[in-house]
Design goal:
This protein has helices at about 15-25, 30-50, 60-95, and strands at about 10, 55. The chain is mainly alpha-helical. A two-stranded parallel sheet has the order 1-2. Helix 1 (about 15-25) packs antiparallel against helix 2.
Length: about 100
């Protein structure tokens, strides 16, 4: 009977953290959660690429965390631009209508 070594595949913990914070940024920690999801997602993808082929998984988790974080930041930026434009244009229209 010969001994056959088994190959163990591990999931990147950074990928799991990226996914968790990608979800959390939509529910609890809006800006900070998105930043953590993006940073951990990029670090996890680098860790998975540098690992021996077939030994580490979790790329899908990392990509999902990245997408959730980037979409959240993009929507937050869009909302900030709309609010600032509304305040600037709304305030400007209000002043122009007050001609005595």
């Amino acid at each position: 009977m010969s001994y056959q070594p088994t190959s163990y595949r591990s999931t990147s913990s950074l990928a799991v953290v990226s996914l968790i914070f990608g979800i959390v940024c939509w529910l609890v920690l809006p800006f900070i959660g998105a930043i953590v999801a993006i940073v951990c997602g990029h670090l996890a993808r680098g860790e998975i690429r540098r690992a021996e082929p077939g030994t580490m998984e979790g790329d899908g988790l990392a990509v999902t965390g990245l997408v959730l974080g980037y979409v959240h930041l993009a929507l937050a930026l869009l909302a900030a631009v709309v609010i600032i434009a509304f305040l600037v244009l709304g305030f400007g229209i209000g002043l122009h209508s007050l001609h005595w």
